[in-house]
Design brief:
Length: 508
């Protein structure tokens, strides 16, 4: 997420010193100089800044898309450099402090309670179900999930506490409605909205962002109300000189603030989709503010749509990845970001840092941008190693339609299709043909990546190299029967390929 800042700072003629605990952090090579300092070490960052001031000068400190705005504010305040007050940065990075600030200022946000240990069964909440449980001081959706009753609240709080550096969990009333992300720059208290995007959230009880689309397609009047609430939240937190990133929901009660961070957004928004959609670089503006300058060049140069979409995997270990270069050269695709490689351990995401990669597109037409990103994401095919206990356990769960527990089935079948599935004959030894399941194949159902049944079968053929012709029902051919279709329904093309690969291993 720092790459755009590193590149833009170099274009501005600045000497850039990058700090991180990991000398092999991505894009370190873009910096003029690297210093190994843990970003949680506020004193260490301040000491580095002081050393730079004493040996040639230091114009400013900034971060983009990370959870270390408080470290930046601490060091800037200690060194007398431009930035927001340290206390304001703490308010923007600690959900308890943030909620209390919002409540005191009348900013619309959910009711909440703070817990330092799992609740007792008779411990009442000051609001009705459902609720959302989060750690107060983490990002990326880690430890965050919806709960609908006391039966799951205890475990959800325990999970959230494991992700909290301070040992606190926040339980909030659930906000029903579409979600939006806002990026803004703030200079001497003046807020400039850089962009607002539609967020695409899936897989309850977790909140997995499978992409965003910039700009938002929401009604202009509703957008104005969302941005009014966001501005009120920025002012309540005391963000005066820097960046602000907000997540806001449009509920039946109107806009409600999920959170506001004192930094530019992650998730490829501030550094990629916003510049692609309008030509403006909010990261450049954030650098200018860190230097004490008024940001310029914030007027849109064009009006395009940029779409970001993620791709994911069922649990297992990656054997091969196909389709990366094919995705890169698709019309309107700008970037393909891989977070895995052969040998990587993968899981079905429970937060926003366990996805497999991201596609970003940009086009003059919203439909072109969305179609391109989604098609490119479906083009990347991940084959898993056999045998694997995590994959076996995932596929051992029989498809159960709309009642499927997390992780969900790739395809959601109704009771009629589930009944037909149970009546299919079982796979026979040496299977090379598909037993027909036309009611499913022709159903129009799509998996969680948008693949239809026939597209999924084509992916299976491509990865396995098997033609898999459909057998006549009474032909006597060796068939892939009920267990194959169950694997496809449960785990999509990955489940079906894993099933075939497992048969091959057993036959050998």
């Amino acid at each position: 997420m720092q790459a755009p800042a590193l590149r833009l700072a170099a274009e501005m003629g600045l000497e850039v010193v990058a700090a991180d605990a990991d000398p092999a952090a991505p894009f370190v090579s873009l910096a003029s100089r690297f210093e190994k300092v843990d970003l949680k070490d506020r004193e260490g960052i301040a000491a580095l800044g002081r050393s730079l001031m004493e040996n040639g000068g230091l114009g400013g400190i900034m971060t983009a898309g990370t959870d270390f705005s408080a470290t930046v504010a601490w060091a800037s305040e200690k060194l007398g450099l431009p930035g927001i007050p340290f206390e304001a940065a703490l308010d923007a990075s600690d959900k308890e402090r943030m909620r209390r600030r919002f409540k005191a200022a009348g900013v619309p946000s959910p009711e909440f309670v703070i817990l330092k240990k799992p609740p007792k069964e008779d411990e009442a909440l000051p609001f009705s179900w459902p609720a959302v449980v989060k750690p107060v001081d983490n990002m990326g959706g880690r430890g965050c999930r919806r709960v609908d009753n006391y039966a799951v609240l205890k475990n959800a709080v325990s999970d959230a506490l494991e992700f909290s550096r301070s040992g606190r969990a926040i339980v909030e009333e659930y906000m029903e409605g579409p979600e939006f992300s806002v990026d803004a720059l703030v200079y001497r208290g003046e807020i400039t909205i850089c962009g607002i995007a539609d967020r695409h959230i899936f897989f309850p009880p977790y909140f997995i962002e499978m992409g965003h689309t910039m700009p938002s397609a929401c009604d202009p009047a509703a957008l104005r109300s969302l941005l009014d609430a966001f501005r009120a939240g920025v002012k309540a937190l005391g963000i005066t000189d820097g960046a602000a990133k907000g997540d806001i929901k449009l509920t039946s009660r109107g806009p409600m603030i999920g959170e506001i961070a004192a930094r530019l957004s992650g998730g490829y928004m501030s550094g990629w989709t916003y510049p692609y959609s309008c030509g403006v670089q909010p990261t450049r503006g954030a650098i200018e503010i860190a230097l004490g300058k008024k940001p310029g060049g914030l007027e849109s140069e064009w009006r395009w749509t940029s779409a970001e979409r993620a791709f994911i995997s069922i649990p297992g270990k990656v054997r091969t990845i196909e389709g990366i270069e094919k995705a890169r050269i698709m019309p309107w695709v700008r970037d393909v970001f891989m977070r895995i490689r052969p040998g990587s351990t993968v899981c079905f995401p429970e937060n926003n840092v366990s996805k497999c990669g991201n596609i970003i597109s940009a086009a003059a037409s919203r439909a072109d941008a969305v179609h391109s990103a989604e098609k490119a994401a479906r083009t990347i095919l991940i084959r898993l190693e056999t045998p694997n206990e995590a994959t076996d356990a995932f596929l051992a769960i029989s498809p159960s339609g709309a009642n499927a527990a997390f992780p969900p089935d790739a395809f959601t079948l109704d009771s009629r299709l589930l009944g037909l599935l149970s009546a299919l004959p079982e796979t026979t030894y040496g299977a090379r043909h598909l037993f027909p399941f036309p009611a499913f194949s022709e159903s129009g159902l799509r998996d969680y990546a948008g693949r239809g049944v026939l597209e999924s079968l084509d992916a299976v053929r491509m990865l396995t190299g098997m033609e898999l012709p459909v057998a006549a029902e009474n032909s006597g051919a060796h068939i892939l029967g009920r267990s194959f279709w169950q694997a496809l329904i449960r785990g999509g093309y990955q489940g079906a390929v894993y099933y075939i690969d497992s048969l091959g291993t057993e036959n050998e």
